[in-house]
Amino acid sequence: MGMTQKQQDKAKQRFYEDIDNVDGNDLEYASKKGRKKVDSLDGDPPGALEKLWDDIKTMIQLIWDYRNGNYKAVPWKIIAAVVAAVIYFVSPIDFIPDFIPGLGYIDDALVIKLALDMAGEDLASYKEWKKTL
């Protein structure tokens, strides 16, 4: 069993609305809570997120570096999309609660994928930048 079309539409709508509301406080929240959640799940990422796991970690690192002023070569709209996706991922309140075995992270995966579709080129540039350090 997966997400219904209605659940998918609601998750997408929330994600796109959240992008427009991201501010500086959300950068800190997403970077700290994102790191904490990834650390807690890193040995065994949820199945729905397994293929996206490295990208999720890269998104959180990007937010961290952007927030700290280390990397600013990314448009605000892309940062806002990445932040909105990470906040959705760490939030206990979403359309399919994370604690439901086998299903809990399906909506998170959808939102992360939407952000990756928007931020793909910028994440690739960020990864190249990280290699130069």
Automatic annotation (TrEMBL):
Subcellular compartments: Endomembrane system
Mode of membrane association: Multi-pass membrane protein
InterPro entries named in the record: DUF1232
Keywords: Membrane, Transmembrane, Transmembrane helix
Major subcellular site: membrane
Domain DUF1232: 79-112
Superkingdom classification of source: Bacteria
Coiled-coil segments on the chain, per record: none
One GO term describing the cellular component: endomembrane system
Transmembrane segments: 74-91
Name the UniProt record assigns to this protein: DUF1232 domain-containing protein
Upper lineage: Bacteria, Pseudomonadati, Thermodesulfobacteriota, Desulfovibrionia, Desulfovibrionales
